[in-house]
Amino acid sequence: MIRQPIxxxxxxxxxxxxxxxxAVRKTTVAKRxxxxxxxHIGASEVPTEVVKKICGALLKVELxxxxxxxxxxxxxxxxxxxxxxxxxxxxxxxxxxxITQGFQPQTLEALNILRDYKTPFVVAANKxxxxxxxxxxxxxxxxxxxxxxxxxxxxxxxxKIYELIGRLxxxxxxxxxxxxxxxxxxxxxIIPVSAKTGEGVAELLMFIAGLSQKFLEKQLSIEVxxxxxxxxxxxxxEKGLGxxxxxxxxxxxxxxxxxxVFGTINGVAETKVRALLKPKPLDEMxxxxxxxxxxxxxxxxxxxxxxxxxxxxxxxxxxxxxxxEKNRASCIAEIExxxxxxxxxxxxxxxxxxxxxxxxxxxxxxxxxxxxxxxxKASIGPIVKKDVIDAYNAKVQNRYCGxxxxxxxxxxxxxxxxxxxxxxxxxxxxxxxxxxxxYQKWVExxxxxxxxxxxxxxxxxxxxxxxxxxxxxxxxxxxxxxxILAGRIKPGYKLMNDKGEEIGEIKSIQREKESLQEAKQxxxxxxxxxxxxxxxxxxxxxxxxxxxxxxxHYKLLTTKYKEHLSEGEHALLVEIRKIxxxxxx
Length: 585
Prior knowledge:
Blueprint: E1 6-11, H1 17-25, H2 29-32, E2 42-47, H3 48-55, E3 67-72, H4 80-89, E4 92-98, H5 105-116, E5 121-126, H6 142-147, H7 151-170, E6 175-177, E7 188-192, H8 201-215, H9 217-220, E8 229-238, E9 242-251, E10 253-255, E11 259-264, E12 267-272, E13 275-278, E14 293-295, E15 297-299, E16 302-307, E17 319-322, H10 328-340, E18 344-345, E19 351-355, H11 358-370, E20 375-380, H12 385-397, E21 404-407, H13 413-422, E22 426-429, H14 432-456, E23 462-473, E24 478-489, E25 494-497, E26 502-511, E27 514-516, E28 519-520, E29 524-530, E30 544-547, H15 551-558, H16 567-580
Parallel strand pairs: 1-3, 1-4, 4-5, 5-7, 6-7, 19-20, 19-21, 21-22
Antiparallel strand pairs: 2-3, 8-9, 8-17, 9-16, 10-15, 11-12, 11-17, 13-14, 13-16, 18-20, 23-24, 23-30, 24-28, 24-29, 25-26, 25-30, 26-27, 26-29
Helix pairs in contact: 3-8, 4-5, 12-13
């Protein structure tokens, strides 16, 4: 049999991957996704009849393939493993590039994945409707639409396409606009499209279907009898059935009553398939518009919903295999290896991560690793009381780890109560990078609070000069007017002169009869000094004094809080050290 090709849609975030599929399916999946950004792998089948209808007279060959199975991958950099997983099972790929933005980080990463797996691909140069002066036409055909554009608009489009050609050439790929290609075995086709207007969709489908059939015939020939290999996309409650799993079958076949193995929170599980449900053509597995059809058998490549006992703890993102006595051990070992690299539990301090799928956990782990944030536990499922207790214990060791990161999961009432009791924040989001950004904002707030606490108990560097004609009391307490030349001063700080000799301790600070708790650089204020010295004898107008920074405070300021001091404060600390020598430091 000839199976339908698996077509992986890849590219940078917000370049229009899901929107392009919506243009093919006549759906609105992109608008319904959190943050309008794909967070999980999705799948949908486009039958040959639909391809023929959209392509019309453009299609010059008789299609033998039953259709196309599209895999929609997230574009954000955190989803490297999800895209790599999609790229590894793909027969052909569509690299979507926003023609107005050109190459972005995930564009380059997608090309590396395609190169690693030697996956043939076409480039969908999306958003041609944003070319200045573009006049959208009511057609799926790019060629017809282009003929209706003004000459200067056609030139502007060509300039953008040649920018892509030049960049791809630098990366080792020979490319050309699809209608100018001379050798399809050596050149990558660039197809201008607009997901918004549908222009170019006909050419895109024609090239995917035609190239797959012409160059991948051997690859698409399958033995229907081979055991199923697939990936769990999502675990869902289905009305009338209970727990089900959405699966992409990318190799072999799966029948009702087959034994399958898959990953769960507690390890590898095994069960027997009770029912197979196929989505309607053009429906997205993640977000179907219509009910599924019951079938007795599915074969690669296809999306299917599986009903079976014991699916409650199935992990979205896990591999799934149909097993026999011959291959059971190897399949179980493969799933165990896969899960051991993702689900984390360590004894040291770290944040608690709970997410809805393995892919989400992978993405969050990558973002946290890039940010240098340790993880104590990363797993799948709702937030429970123990997660909060673990976060509180981590907080005792490291205050920046005392948090639970919740991605697309529920929070139990017990967990909420425990979090309120121990002041453990639970940061929720249905967009991965937003959650990480919110965590980083929380860390900054905690650091600011910690700095405030530390600074309230620390002597900070300060330098001041006695102002002329501003002696209000000559003896203890000496009251004089001063200007803060650098840093800051507070009541309780001891002062020394430029010879390192102690002057006394600041008892109070006033400005226009108002008591102050702090005075900073540039301010002119009056200070009362508890001292045995007398103004006019040991202290004179123009004298410069410094705060006496204790040795332990000096070490903290030059290490732990170094990044929070200004250049002037750093320089002042060096000056104070030179003056004080071993007296205070």
